[in-house]
Design a protein that fits this description.
Blueprint lengths: L6 E2 L2 E2 L14 H31 L20 H14 L7 H9 L22 E13 L2 E10 L6 E9 L5 E3 L4 E3 L19 H15 L3 H7 L14 E12 L2 E9 L5 E12 L3 E6 L9
Antiparallel strand pairs: 1-2, 3-4, 4-5, 5-6, 5-7, 8-9, 9-10, 10-11
Helix pairs in contact: 4-5
C-alpha cells in the first residue's frame, strides 16, 4: 500500500512542534507581582519622611570653627598681624538684619572666656563690608600681649577706620583676641626733620654698578641684574616694569648701604621720582647684595 509524505506548514518529512507548556499561577500571586513596584516606592517615601521628622525633632549639632595660628618660635609678628587683620575684617563686616551670624564669625578668634556677642548692633537694617586692611601700628605690652592697630577700608566710608585689637601670642604658638577692640585715631604724623641724606658717593665704579643694577631691576631683567648681584644673592624684580631715565643722587647711608634717587617712567609715559636702598659689597669689584633689603633682626 503506498504511503504519502506528511506535510505540515509547507515542510516535508518533519513532525509537528509541541505546543508551549502553560504554567498555572494563582490570581493572588499575579496581583502581588503587579503591586510590587508601588509597594517599594511607598516604602522609600516612608523612610525619607521618617528621616525628615528625626532632623526636625533632633537637628544636627552646629559645626563650630576654631582658628589657631602657629607663630614661629622666633617671635615673628607677621602671623599675629595677619590674624588681627582677619579679626578686623570680621568685626567690621556684618549683615544689617542678622547679628547672630556676626557673633558666630567672631567666636573663632577669641581666647577662652571672652564673649563679644552683640558688640556690633546694626541700625536701619544696613549692612557693612570691609574692602581692604593693612597694619598701621603695633605696641608690645609684654607677656605675649600686643595691641595691633589695623587700618580698615569699609564700603560706606570715604576715609579708613583704625581698629586697635588686643592680641595674645601663647607659648604654644597660638594667637587669640583677648578683649574688646577699640576704634582709634590714625597714627600721628612724625613732625621731626627727615634724617640727613648722607654724603654723595664719589667712587664712579660703585655708582655705575648701582645705576646698572637699578636699571635692570626696574625693567624686570633678572638675567642682566644677576650679573651685578653678589654671588649667591637672589633679588626678585617688580611685576610692573619701569624704565630708568636718570640717577639724580647716590649717597652713603651707613657702611655697606647706599641710597639711590632716580627718575623713571612707566609704559604709559608717567614719570616718577623714586628712592631705593641698595646693600653693596666689595669683592674683586663692587656687587649689589640686595635692593631695598629688609631691616636686620634685633637680637633677643
Amino acid at each position: 500500500m503506498a504511503s504519502w509524505p506528511v506535510i505540515y506548514h509547507g515542510r516535508r518529512g518533519r513532525e509537528p512542534e509541541p505546543a508551549p507548556a502553560l504554567r498555572r499561577e494563582s490570581l493572588g500571586a499575579v496581583r502581588a507581582r503587579a503591586n510590587a513596584p508601588r509597594v517599594l516606592t511607598l516604602g522609600a517615601i516612608g523612610v525619607l519622611a521618617l528621616a525628615g521628622v528625626r532632623h526636625i525633632i533632633a537637628p544636627p549639632a552646629p559645626v563650630t570653627v576654631s582658628r589657631t595660628v602657629q607663630v614661629p618660635a622666633s617671635g615673628d609678628a607677621a602671623p599675629a598681624d595677619a590674624f588681627a587683620q582677619d579679626f578686623a575684617r570680621a568685626f567690621l563686616t556684618f549683615d544689617g538684619s542678622d547679628t547672630s551670624g556676626h557673633d558666630q564669625q567672631l567666636a573663632g578668634f577669641l581666647a577662652p572666656g571672652v564673649d563679644l556677642s552683640q558688640t556690633v548692633v546694626p541700625s536701619g537694617g544696613r549692612g557693612q563690608h570691609v574692602t581692604w586692611t593693612t597694619i598701621a601700628g603695633r605696641v608690645s605690652r609684654g607677656s605675649g600681649q600686643s595691641t595691633i592697630t589695623v587700618e580698615v577700608g569699609v564700603d560706606r566710608d570715604a576715609t579708613p577706620r583704625y581698629l586697635a585689637v588686643a592680641v595674645r601670642q601663647g607659648q604654644g604658638g597660638t594667637v587669640a583676641v583677648t578683649g574688646l577692640p577699640a576704634l582709634v585715631n590714625a597714627p600721628a604724623l612724625d613732625t621731626e626733620s627727615a634724617p640727613s641724606a648722607g654724603d654723595q658717593v664719589s667712587d664712579p665704579a660703585l655708582v655705575a654698578v648701582v645705576e646698572r643694577a637699578l636699571g635692570s631691576y626696574l625693567r624686570g631683567d633678572s638675567a642682566q641684574l644677576a650679573a651685578d648681584l653678589l654671588p649667591g644673592a637672589a633679588q626678585p624684580v617688580p611685576a610692573n616694569h619701569l624704565a630708568l631715565t636718570q640717577t639724580t643722587a647716590v649717597t652713603q647711608v651707613s657702611a655697606g648701604l647706599l641710597a639711590a634717587e632716580v627718575n623713571a617712567h612707566d609704559a604709559a609715559g608717567v614719570s616718577y621720582s623714586l628712592r631705593y636702598l641698595i646693600a653693596v659689597s666689595r669683592r674683586d669689584r663692587w656687587y649689589v647684595a640686595a635692593i631695598n633689603p629688609p631691616a636686620p633682626r634685633r637680637q633677643p
